[in-house]
C-alpha cells in the first residue's frame, strides 16, 4: 500500500485596504510561493475588502518543518 502524502499549508493576504490589490502584487506573491515549492490551489477576494487571500500547499518533508499558525 502506498504511503499517503502529508501536506503543509500556507495562507497569505495580498493587498491593502486603502489602496486595493494590484495585479503585480498578486503575481509577485504567486511567483514567490512557486519558487518556495508551494502549489497555489485557491485565490479569492475577501468579502467587503479589496484584499486577496491566497492558499497553497506543498508536501510535508518533515513534521518538525510544519509551520504553526497558532501559538
Question: What does this molecule look like?
Answer:
The chain has 71 residues and is α+β, with helices and mostly antiparallel strands. The protein has one domain. It has one helix and three strands, in the order βαββ. Strands 1-3-2 form a three-stranded antiparallel sheet, with helices on one face. A hairpin with a 6-residue loop joins strand 2 (39-45) and strand 3. The longest helix has 13 residues, at 23-35. The protein is elongated and about 50 Å long. It starts with 6 loop residues before the first strand and ends in a 12-residue tail after the last strand. The mean pLDDT is 86.
Primary descriptors:
71 residues, three-stranded antiparallel β-sheet, 1 helix, 18% helix, elongated
Short description:
This protein is an alpha+beta fold and 71 residues long. The chain contains one helix and three strands. The protein has one domain.
Furnish the topology, listing elements before pairings.
Blueprint: E1 7-14, H1 23-35, E2 39-45, E3 52-59
Antiparallel strand pairs: 1-3, 2-3
The beta-strand count equals 3
Count of helical segments?
A: 1
What is the string of SSEs from the N terminus onward? EHEE
Q: Termini, distance in Å? A: 35 Å
Beta percentage is 25-35%
Number of individual domains? 1
Radius of gyration computed on alpha carbons: 14 Å
Q: Sheet with the most strands? A: 3 strands, antiparallel
Across the major sheet, the strand order is: 1-3-2
Low-confidence stretches: none
Helical fraction equals 10-25%
Mean pLDDT: 86
Structural class: alpha+beta
Shape: elongated
Amino acid at each position: 500500500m502506498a504511503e499517503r502524502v502529508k501536506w503543509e499549508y500556507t495562507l497569505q493576504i495580498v493587498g491593502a485596504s486603502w489602496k486595493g490589490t494590484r495585479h503585480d502584487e498578486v503575481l509577485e506573491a504567486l511567483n514567490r510561493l512557486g519558487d518556495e515549492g508551494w502549489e497555489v490551489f485557491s485565490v479569492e477576494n475577501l468579502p467587503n475588502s479589496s484584499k486577496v487571500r491566497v492558499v497553497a500547499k506543498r508536501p510535508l518533508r518533515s513534521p518538525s518543518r510544519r509551520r504553526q499558525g497558532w501559538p
